[in-house]
Amino acid sequence: MTGAGLNEPGFESSTFFRAIFNKHSRPATQKTTQKILEELKKNPCITRKELASIIGISQNGIKYHLDNLKKTSVIERVGPDKGGRWEVRRDL
């Protein structure tokens, strides 16, 4: 889990065994965002599907991060959805 940028789970044991999974922490989100920006710089025409495959998260997760980056004016979509490209306007 650490290799994937996730928090380590907690474990409890008594009569039963229990694994406790925590939500993503902020650093994992920042790490994912940095990876996305790096890939956009390498290939401005990359698709969400390709990003999801490279980064290792769902296409919905990629959409969430891209939307946040667009809202904060870090990236901009230039051109149409099909055939357009991403422009990284500034680094985080």
Automatic annotation (TrEMBL):
Pfam families referenced in this protein's UniProt entry, alphabetically: HTH_24 (PF13412)
InterPro entries: ArsR-like_HTH, WH-like_DNA-bd_sf, WH_DNA-bd_sf
Protein name: Helix-turn-helix type 11 domain-containing protein
Organism: Candidatus Wallbacteria bacterium GWC2_49_35
